[in-house]
Amino acid sequence: MKSKKVSPLKSARSAVVERNTKETRISVRLNIDGCGDAKVRTGIGFLDHMLVLLAKHGMFDVDVKAKGDLHIDRHHTNEDVAITLGQAFSKALGNKAGIKRYGFFYAPMGEALSRVCLDISGRPSFYFRCDLKLNQRGENYKLEDAEHFLESFAQQAGINMHVDVLAGKQHHHAIEAVFKSFARALDQASQIDAREKGIPSTKGAL
Fold it and tell me: Is residue 42, in this structure, part of any structural domain at all?
């Protein structure tokens, strides 16, 4: 049975993180035990769409504001939003006591199919596999942008993550499937297991 999430006003698992550099200014508010509410303004339309999906399917409440050097390219903003969101997730989890720790999910989107498996282990690593030739015509947010976003998030959140794009033809569908499976897997792993009385590791720490 899926653990019931509590009201955002009563949640202790929340965080606010800001990141200011010469390239970007990022502000993230995150509530892990949310209702899927999202306010996202990064200046990158497709990334905004994916973060709204992340909140909705992960049942996280997020408020993301970003101003970056988009006149140069989207790389810095894409990366720094991921870094800040990952730091907020790690901060909100605290010592990780009681979490389920592991999560995995298959998500279809039209002809595309993605799988994400992750472990909130405190030892970040990232693996991305896609052997498909996808139609990228007309797309301004590429699969490699999504890959870099997830890798940056995983590094800051302390997550071991495996992402596999198993099927697909359309670039848009493949990325959306990836973010949906990521959201659902992250939701699973971050839920509280009532049976777990402490840190979910034989080492006693994550």
Answer: yes
